[in-house]
């Protein structure tokens, strides 16, 4: 298949005594070709057949192409956020998981199910947060602050997870940090500075931040959002907390991908302005046919660069590659078996905490008091 390459800027932070400083670096993403209607139908049929033949199940993130979202659901798999993707992959009996998303999602699935074969359409699909948090520098940052409980976002490498005490996703970060604060923990947080700052404002926790950012959410612009709000006076604003504080401040609801879906469903408005990856529009629109969803602006007079509100790495997932990896077994996710047990610890803590919360149990009891073993 012909593939165009796309240059991507991302921030590569380095820790210093006060936290960290940033220097912008470069990465790249592949842009898959959109298949024509007949090729598309044939690929979907082929994937359905291969999933059965290979005892495989497909798990897709809300940000990937609508075809991959629909196919996952139609074949007994799941389209969801990174937390539910991890739980579903762990609990499903299929021998092979096909993870359409970005690399940390495939790695998390492998860490939770080392006995399963985890395939990804493109192993180079990464994340600016993962790229911006190299394990060597991050470990040095942790070593410099041994009194802090290390909380990392799921959007990190297996090695960074293995250096952490707790893992969080955007849907449970607030609850977990609040529980840690209530038990007296001071937090070392990585890598997303905007999500970290949001949680700090909401919980009042003592948090020392790594200085990473999501290249998609970092681009939402408050000034342009305000002018779009003026054009749609009754609209409700839904914002992912990886967005800058000025944008979060304008929100009627702040939430993870699943939080945004829930708010859109429950809020009594006809028009919504949404500040998150525009891959979300597919689910928002199909689940809420009577409502209008507008993308929050990412460019304009206050913008430093233009972006399209779509993650270049999520966009690397294609029908053709799903079919190819299922057929050939290529692109199997590998995680060093030596780090799996340590990397699994913070993930298991997160899954136990969120299961307790979901079941109405005392999730806080799963968090030790500071100083306790
Ligand atoms: P969720 O944890 O909400 O799935 O988000 C992952 C992500 O990459 C957001 O940009
Ligand atoms: Fe990473 Fe942002 Fe892409 Fe999510 S949208 S995978 S945080 S770069």
Whole-number average pLDDT?
92
Q: How far do the termini sit from each other?
A: 53 Å
Question: Structural class of the helix and strand makeup?
Answer: alpha/beta
How many structural domains in the coordinates?
3
Strand order of the largest sheet: 4-3-5-6
Proper CATH architecture of the largest domain: 3-Layer(aba) Sandwich
Q: How is the CATH topology of the largest domain named?
A: Rossmann fold
Characterise this structure:
It is a single chain. The chain has helices at residues 37-53, 66-74, 82-91, 103-112, 128-131, 135-143, 158-162, 173-182, 193-203, 222-231, 245-248, 257-266, 281-287, 319-328, 340-358, and strands at 4-16, 19-31, 56-61, 78-80, 96-100, 117-119, 149-153, 166-168, 187-190, 207-209, 236-239, 253-254, 271-275, 292-295. It has 373 residues and is of the alpha/beta class. The chain folds into three domains: 32-127 and 313-328, NadA-like (Rossmann fold, 3-Layer(aba) Sandwich), CATH 3.40.50.10800; 135-215 and 341-366, NadA-like (Rossmann fold, 3-Layer(aba) Sandwich), CATH 3.40.50.10800; 217-295, NadA-like (Rossmann fold). It has a four-stranded parallel β-sheet, sandwiched between helices. The chain has a four-stranded parallel β-sheet with strand order 8-7-9-10. Strands 12-11-13-14 form a four-stranded parallel β-sheet, with helices on both faces. Helix 7 (158-162) links the parallel strand 7 and strand 8. The N and C termini lie far apart (53 Å). 1,3-dihydroxyacetonephosphate binds next to loops. Iron/sulfur cluster binds at residues 102, 127-129, 155, 214-216, 242, 277, 311, 313-314.
């Amino acid at each position: 298949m012909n593939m165009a390459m796309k240059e991507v800027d991302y921030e590569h932070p380095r820790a210093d005594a006060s936290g960290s400083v940033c220097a912008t670096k470069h990465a790249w993403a592949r842009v898959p070709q959109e298949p024509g209607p007949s090729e598309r139908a044939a690929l979907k049929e082929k994937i359905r057949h291969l999933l059965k033949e290979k005892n495989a199940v497909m798990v897709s993130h809300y940000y990937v192409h609508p075809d991959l979202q629909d196919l996952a659901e139609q074949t007994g798999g799941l389209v969801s956020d990174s937390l539910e993707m991890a739980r579903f992959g762990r609990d499903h009996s299929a021998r092979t998981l096909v993870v359409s998303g970005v690399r940390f999602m495939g790695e998390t699935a492998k860490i939770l199910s080392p006995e399963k074969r985890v395939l990804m359409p493109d192993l180079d699909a990464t994340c600016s947060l993962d790229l911006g948090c190299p394990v060597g520098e991050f470990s040095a940052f942790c070593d410099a602050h041994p009194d802090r409980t290390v909380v990392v976002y799921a959007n990190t490498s297996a090695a960074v997870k293995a250096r952490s005490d707790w893992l969080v996703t955007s849907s449970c970060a607030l609850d977990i940090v609040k529980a840690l604060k209530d038990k007296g923990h001071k937090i070392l947080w990585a890598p997303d500075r905007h999500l970290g700052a949001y949680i700090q404002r909401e919980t009042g926790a003592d948090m020392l931040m790594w200085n990473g950012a999501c290249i998609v959410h970092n681009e939402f612009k408050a000034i342009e959002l305000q002018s779009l709000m003026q054009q749609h006076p009754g609209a409700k604003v839904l914002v992912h907390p990886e967005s800058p504080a000025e944008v979060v401040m304008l929100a009627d609801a702040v939430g993870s991908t699943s939080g945004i879906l829930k708010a859109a469903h429950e809020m009594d408005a006809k028009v919504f302005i949404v500040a998150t990856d525009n891959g979300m529009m597919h689910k928002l629109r199909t689940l809420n046919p009577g409502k209008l969803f507008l993308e929050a602006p990412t460019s304009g007079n206050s913008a430093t660069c233009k972006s399209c509100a779509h993650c270049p790495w999520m966009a690397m997932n294609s029908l053709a590659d799903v079919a190819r990896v299922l057929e050939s077994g290529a692109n199997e996710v590998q995680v060093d078996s030596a780090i799996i047990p340590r990397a699994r610890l913070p993930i298991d803590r997160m899954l136990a905490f969120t299961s307790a919360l979901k079941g109405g149990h005392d999730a806080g009891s799963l968090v030790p008091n500071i100083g306790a073993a």
